[in-house]
């Protein structure tokens, strides 16, 4: 069960990711158990893009838990409008060529993810589930002034992008996975995870991994950004 008590507002060193981070994972977005995003009250209301966990075989010591990082989606399918924080899915033509596909480079977006067995739901297979958040320049939908006010939080929701290729760069660890006394308690902790991820990524040594148009700076960071956008 989750221990009582307040949570740290940021996670990981201010100086930037330390080994084993950054960790690269990639794969097509696959179906999960369908609990994340649907509107019904008894479901989470937090969409998570699931990718195959195979890439984790390279990191046998990586613990299950909640992490933060950055993601990019194949721009041939997923066309992101940064000014409006909205996305459009390209419809492919019947001959297999892309109809409205974008020629723009992929947008790199902040993300928070869970790696593990979801103890609240007692899954028997390990999953990698990524909740994508709006750019740091937009306001955060998960910030609330008073978390005991009963105010309902809505998480960031994009149009479905199943089967789209996704590149994920994990930059830091937030916490272990827990079981919870209620669905509300799980949702509130995931809300706080979003805020911790956002604050953690706002630090200079992490912000550089995002899509900020800055082509100067550390060559290792630039190479990670190039990998994120290489589809
Ligand atoms: C940031 C984040 C943290 C999470 N933490 C937990 C957790 O501590 N315990 C848990 O059982 N599930 C946790 N989950 C997983 C949710 O239970 C999961 O997203 C939900 O079961 C949806 O699964 P689905 O994609 O298979 O539909 C977390 C998910 C996210 C995105
Ligand atoms: N902010 C978001 N982050 C991740 N996925 C999102 C987001 N908004 C919409 N989606 C879509 O919702 C799907 C996940 O919903 P979810 O209920 O978790 O279903 P599943 O159990 O199939 O993973 C993703 O695969 C993606 O297509
Ligand atoms: Mg999911």
Question: What does this 3D model show about the protein?
Answer:
The protein has 231 residues and is an alpha+beta fold. A hairpin with a 4-residue loop joins strand 4 (78-81) and strand 5. The radius of gyration is 17 Å and the shape is globular. It contains three helices and eight strands; from the N terminus they run ββββββββααα. The protein has a single domain (23-81, 104-229), classed as Elongation Factor Tu (Ef-tu), domain 3. The model has no long low-confidence stretch (mean pLDDT 89). The strands form two sheets. Strands 1-8-3-6-7-2 form a six-stranded antiparallel β-sheet, with helices on one face. It has a two-stranded antiparallel ribbon with strand order 4-5. The longest helix is centred in the last third of the chain and has 19 residues, at 183-201. The site of adenosine-5'-diphosphate has 21 residues, from strand 2 and strand 7. It catalyses: riboflavin + ATP = FMN + ADP + H(+). Pfam families: Flavokinase.
Gist of the model:
With 231 residues, the protein is of the alpha+beta class. Helix content is 15%, strand content 23%.
Bound ligands, each once: flavin mononucleotide, adenosine-5'-diphosphate, magnesium ion
| Strand arrangement, major sheet | 1-8-3-6-7-2
Shape: globular
Number of strands: 8
Q: Give the C-level CATH assignment.
A: Mainly Beta
CATH superfamily: Riboflavin kinase-like
H/E series: EEEEEEEEHHH
Could you please say which CATH topology applies here?
A: Elongation Factor Tu (Ef-tu), domain 3
Ends distance:
40 Å
Q: How helix-rich are the residues, as a percent range?
A: 10-25%
Q: What percent of residues are in strands?
A: 15-25%
**Sheet bearing the most strands, described?**
6 strands, antiparallel
Structural class: alpha+beta
Q: Count of helical segments?
A: 3
**Rg of Cα set:** 17 Å
Low-confidence stretches: none
**CATH architecture term:** Beta Barrel
The tally of domains stands at 1
Question: Average pLDDT value?
Answer: 89
């Amino acid at each position: 069960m989750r221990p009582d008590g307040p949570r740290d507002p940021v996670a990981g060193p201010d100086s930037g990711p330390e080994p084993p981070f950054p960790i690269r994972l990639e794969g097509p977005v696959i179906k999960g158990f369908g609990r994340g995003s649907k509107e019904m009250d008894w479901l989470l209301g937090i969409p998570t893009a699931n990718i195959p966990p195979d890439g984790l075989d390279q990191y046998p010591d990586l613990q299950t838990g909640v992490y933060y990082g950055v993601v990019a989606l194949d721009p041939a399918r997923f066309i992101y409008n940064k000014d409006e924080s909205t996305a459009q899915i390209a419809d492919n033509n019947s001959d297999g060529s892309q109809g409205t596909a974008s020629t723009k480079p992929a947008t790199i977006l902040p993300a928070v993810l869970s790696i593990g067995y979801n103890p609240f739901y007692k899954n028997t297979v390990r999953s990698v589930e990524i909740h994508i958040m709006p750019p740091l320049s937009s306001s955060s939908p998960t910030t609330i002034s008073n978390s005991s006010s009963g105010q309902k939080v809505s998480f960031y929701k994009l149009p479905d992008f199943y089967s789209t290729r996704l590149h994920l760069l994990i930059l830091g660890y937030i916490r272990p996975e827990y079981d919870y006394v209620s669905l509300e308690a799980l949702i509130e902790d995931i809300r706080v995870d979003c805020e911790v991820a956002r604050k953690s990524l706002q630090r200079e040594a992490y912000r550089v991994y995002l899509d900020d148009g800055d082509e100067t700076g550390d060559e290792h960071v630039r190479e990670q950004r190039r990998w994120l956008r290489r589809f």
